[in-house]
Design brief:
Layout (H helix, E strand, L loop, with lengths): L26 H9 L25 H11 L4 E2 L2 H6 L6 H8 L9 E3 L4 H14 L2 E5 L19 E5 L6 E5 L4 E5 L4 H9 L3 E2 L12 H6 L7 H4 L2 H4 E8 L2 E5 L11 H5 L8 E8 L1 E2 L3 E9 L2 H12 L7 E5 L1 H9 L7 H19 L8 E9 L1 H16 L4 E4 H10 L4 H9 L2 E11 L3 H18 L5 E9 L3 E11 L4 H19 L17 H5 L1 H14 L13
Parallel strand pairs: 2-4, 3-4
Antiparallel strand pairs: 1-2, 5-6, 6-10, 7-11, 8-9, 8-10, 12-14, 12-15, 13-14, 13-17, 16-18, 17-18
Helix pairs in contact: 2-5, 17-18
GO molecular function, one term: FAD binding
Cofactor: FAD
Pfam families: FAD-oxidase_C, FAD_binding_4
């Protein structure tokens, strides 16, 4: 559809945008050492859709006529490529299936409503005709919350909210904006920024994901230390159900029984379709600066992040990479091409040499980034206060140069996964959250579990992590792991990913901090929220959707 932006059908992001390593001289040696994989130049830039065989649509003429009467014929599509764009998200499992052309079950029709009453009409039709409706935002999910049941016999409708893409109003006194659910992150920020405001919510998927999708999957952004997770940001909602519309007004707080707002956030389309949200917005800060620090060890870095979190210093984010992720980050540095950059690179090499002479193990060092926003004088005060805390843990202040580079590259990482798949290599992520007292335990448990799983599969594997999203009681740990694909891609992946996920639970963490549940994480739900908790969710979904028409099977079956 010309009026709605979509990612490429076979991978992440835009056609023609790729991860390049030729200009990163340390990257290929790093991959060889970490994964025992010899990188080669990229052999293809795209995958021709003409090579794909797409299952025929099962939507009958009566259903199609009814849908067209709701939205107009031009907003109902049977196009094969659009159906594949909407068939799944971007998890490793889904990408492997997509690249292999293995489409067990594909949406039969894609519908683009342009107003809330059209969403309501589609849902009423779903109940009347016993259709399955799967809401679709940007398609960035990596928890398989979009993938249909391969045994589903009913007509499946992918309900794409992309036409609902406007910032409707801003209450400048209250700092609240009313925004349609289908707006992509950059389009929303452009509309807000034009009036001097920002939502401040920037997940890794920001470029290609939507506000409604963030709420439906309980997202967290890179800057949640200041702006909060999406559950903190969303104050009001409009949620369309087959029998009517749930309207939650944007109140600062309320004591009106169990929180319907909390119930809907994270429900992944099982309770209805979010069409509109009332959200906190903030004036764009006068100054923004990201400062980098280097710590001698992971434990010292974690202690410093905890000290920052429990201090009165207000940061926008504070994150630290462990030694493995720090080494990876350094390997992605581009070769210097100007005199200034060559001088900077030489200075970095000299700094590492000085650190080694002072007793640092440069293989154990950990890089951290802290973001400061506000008035210039206040930013300077906070930077000085944080410098005092990190230096107590032996850190060196690297300054704003590396921090600015991190800020520029923060949305590029997902492209690396497509590059690795083209190299017959898996790169994937798992994230958790745990109390401060258990972070070190969870970190070690995940590493140990991954290494055992790699060994069991006969693989040279790699795992790395960073800490982000600090809270009063704990923080998020975000892990990335990689290995070369063997004879059984799906079995190998399931074994390794499951080992890491189980380690989270066993060590006291949660199954997911912000990626949601979908199908990918549902096997751990009973361990995370208790069998009775799962039964309560199951009864909720069954009672509110007795026909199983709303994204069935996700979160709990």
């Amino acid at each position: 559809m010309a009026h709605v932006k979509h990612m490429k059908w076979w991978g992440w992001g835009e056609e023609g945008v790729h991860f390049e390593y030729a200009n990163k001289p340390a990257f290929a040696p790093f991959v060889k050492k970490a994964l025992d994989v010899d990188l080669r130049p990229r052999q293809r830039d795209t995958i021709d859709f003409a090579t794909v065989s797409v299952p025929a649509s099962r939507a009958d003429d009566d259903v199609l006529a009814a849908l067209r009467s709701v939205t107009g014929a031009e907003h109902v599509s049977l196009d094969d490529e659009l159906r594949i764009v909407h068939w799944a998200g971007k998890s490793v499992t889904e990408l492997l299936l997509t690249r292999a052309g293995d489409f067990a079950r594909v949406p039969d029709v894609v519908v683009y409503p342009g107003a809330e009453d059209e969403v309501a009409a589609v849902l009423r039709l779903a109940v009347e005709r016993d259709l399955v409706v799967i809401p679709f935002g940007g398609g960035t999910s990596i928890s398989r919350s979009l993938q249909p049941d391969p045994t589903e016999e009913r007509t499946i409708v992918s309900l794409d909210l992309g036409r609902l893409n406007r910032v409707l109003s801003i209450d400048e006194t209250s700092g609240l904006a009313t925004i349609e659910a289908g707006v992509l992150g950059p389009d929303m920020e452009d509309q807000l920024n034009a009036r001097g405001w920002t939502l401040g919510h920037f997940p890794d998927s920001f470029t290609h994901s939507t506000l409604g999708g963030w709420a439906a999957t309980r997202s967290s952004g890179m800057q949640s230390d200041k702006y909060g997770d999406i559950a903190d940001i969303v104050r009001g909602l409009r949620v369309v159900r087959p029998g009517g519309t749930v309207v939650l007004r944007p109140l600062p707080s309320t004591s009106t029984g169990p929180s319907l707002r909390e119930m809907i956030i994270g429900s992944e389309g099982r309770l209805g379709v979010i069409t509109q949200l009332d959200v906190h917005v903030h004036r764009i800060a006068e100054q923004r600066e990201v400062i980098a620090y280097m710590f001698p060890t992971w434990q010292q870095a974690l202690t410093a992040m905890h000290d920052i979190a429990r201090s009165d210093i207000r940061t926008t984010f504070a994150r630290v990479s462990d030694a493995h992720e720090t080494a990876f980050s350094l390997s992605t540095q581009k070769a210097p091409t100007t005199l200034k950059k060559k001088v900077t690179a030489k200075g970095q090499d000299l700094l590492w040499e000085v650190m080694r002479r002072r007793g640092w193990d440069t293989d154990a060092m950990c890089i951290a980034y802290v973001c400061f926003e506000g008035e210039k004088a206040e930013v300077e005060r906070r930077k000085k206060a944080v410098a005092g805390l990190v230096k107590k843990q032996g850190a060196l202040v690297l300054g704003s140069g590396p921090g600015a580079l991190y800020d520029q590259k923060k949305f590029d990482t997902p492209y690396l996964r497509d590059f690795l798949l083209e190299q017959n290599t898996i790169g994937d992520v798992s994230e958790t959250a745990a109390p401060w007292s258990k972070l070190t335990t969870v970190h070690k448990a995940a590493y140990d579990a991954a290494h055992r799983a790699f060994a069991a599969q006969g693989k040279t594997g790699w795992i790395m992590s960073h800490m982000s999203h600090s809270y009063h009681a704990g923080a998020c740990l975000y892990f990335t792991f990689g290995y070369e694909i063997g004879a059984d891609p799906h079995g190998e992946y399931a074994a390794i990913k499951s080992a890491v996920q189980q380690a989270f639970i066993d060590a006291g963490g949660t199954l997911s901090h912000h990626h949601g549940v979908g199908l990918e994480h549902s096997p751990w739900m009973e361990q995370d929220v208790s069998p009775e908790g799962v039964d309560l969710m199951r009864r909720l979904f069954s009672a509110t959707d007795p026909g199983g028409n709303l994204n069935p099977g996700k979160i709990v079956s």
